[in-house]
Design a protein that fits this description.
- The protein is an alpha/beta fold.
- The protein is 28% helix and 25% strand.
- Helix 1 runs parallel beside helix 2.
- Strand 13, helix 6 and strand 14 form a beta-alpha-beta unit.
- The strands form three sheets. The chain has a ten-stranded mixed beta sheet with strand order 3-2-1-4-5-6-9-13-14-15. The chain has a three-stranded antiparallel beta sheet with strand order 10-11-12, with no helix packed on it. A two-stranded antiparallel sheet has the order 7-8.
- About 3% of the residues have low confidence.
C-alpha cells in the first residue's frame, strides 16, 4: 500500500478539480485548487522524497488553445523526475513514445481505448505494438450504476457496458503493466472513498492497482487499508495540504 503522488495540469496550471466537472467546450472545470507553482516544482519534490509511480495528467485535449502550455508544463515535470512518473491525457499509439522518450516511465491510456461508451480493443493492440505492455497503465475509472461499477468515457460522462469485475481485471491485465482507477463519483469531493470498489480491488490478485477518489483523512487511510487488505496503492489530490486540503503531505509520503 503505497502513496502515488499526482500532478494534474489544466489550462497550463497545476490544479485539483472536482471529478466529473471537466468539459472540453470552453476548457471549463470546477476547480478545488490552482497552484502558482509549476509542474516541475511538484515533480522535483516527489523525486526528492523518492515517491515513484505517480501520475501527471494533461486535462486539456490536443485541440485546446491551452494544450501546448499544458504539455510544456508536463514535459518540465518529466525532465525534473525522469523515469519517476507516469503520464496520461490524450495518449495514442502515435504519440506515446514521445512521452516515454521525454522521461515518462509509463503512459496512461483512457480515451484512446474507451470513447463514446465503447471499448476499442484494436487501439489498445496498436498501443501495445508501439510501446509494449511494460509501459502501459490502463485507466478504468468508473461510476456506480445499479449493482456494479462501470467504466465511463468522455470526461467520465458516458457509461460503457464494461462492468468492473475481477474477471475483467484479469483479462485486461495481459495488456498493461498497471491499472489506475478513479472512483469518479467521489473524486475531488473529499467525501470518503467508494468502499465497495476498494474492497473488490483489494480482493483481486494481479498487477499493481492505484485507486483515486475521496480519501481525505488519516482515518480514511486506515479504513482504506482495512478494506483493501493493504493490497492496492492510492493517490490523494485536493485533500492534501499541498493542494489546499488538510491532510499533511509529510505524513502521507511515508507510505512508500
Amino acid at each position: 500500500m503505497k502513496f502515488r503522488p499526482c500532478i494534474d495540469i489544466h489550462n497550463g496550471k497545476v490544479k485539483q478539480i472536482v471529478g466529473g466537472s471537466l468539459r472540453d467546450e470552453g476548457d471549463r472545470a470546477n476547480t478545488n485548487y490552482a497552484s502558482e507553482l509549476d509542474a516541475a516544482f511538484y515533480a522535483e519534490l516527489y523525486r526528492k522524497d523518492r515517491l515513484k509511480g505517480g501520475h501527471i495528467i494533461l486535462l486539456n485535449p490536443a485541440g485546446s488553445k491551452y494544450y501546448e502550455e499544458t504539455k510544456r508544463q508536463a514535459y518540465g515535470a518529466l525532465k525534473a523526475y525522469p523515469g519517476g512518473m507516469q503520464i496520461g491525457g490524450g495518449i495514442t499509439a502515435e504519440n506515446a513514445k514521445n512521452f516515454l522518450d521525454a522521461g515518462a516511465s509509463h503512459v496512461i491510456v483512457t480515451s484512446y481505448v474507451f470513447k463514446s461508451g465503447t471499448f476499442y480493443r484494436d487501439n489498445l493492440e496498436r498501443l501495445l505494438s508501439a510501446v509494449g505492455k511494460e509501459h502501459i497503465v490502463l485507466d478504468l475509472s468508473c461510476r456506480k450504476k445499479g449493482d456494479g461499477y462501470y467504466v465511463v468515457t468522455d470526461r467520465w460522462q458516458e457509461f460503457t457496458d464494461m462492468r468492473l469485475t475481477e474477471e475483467v481485471l484479469t483479462e485486461l491485465s495481459s495488456c498493461c503493466d498497471e491499472f489506475l482507477i478513479h472512483g469518479v463519483d467521489v473524486e475531488g469531493r473529499r467525501s470518503g472513498m467508494e468502499e465497495e470498489l476498494v474492497h473488490m480491488l483489494g480482493a483481486w490478485s494481479g498487477i499493481p492497482v492505484t485507486y483515486a477518489g475521496g480519501i481525505s483523512s488519516l482515518e480514511d487511510l486506515d479504513e482504506f487499508r482495512r478494506l483493501s487488505g493493504g493490497n492496492i496503492d492510492f493517490t490523494i489530490g485536493s485533500a492534501l495540504d499541498l493542494f489546499g486540503g488538510n491532510l499533511p503531505y509529510e505524513t502521507v509520503k511515508r507510505f512508500q
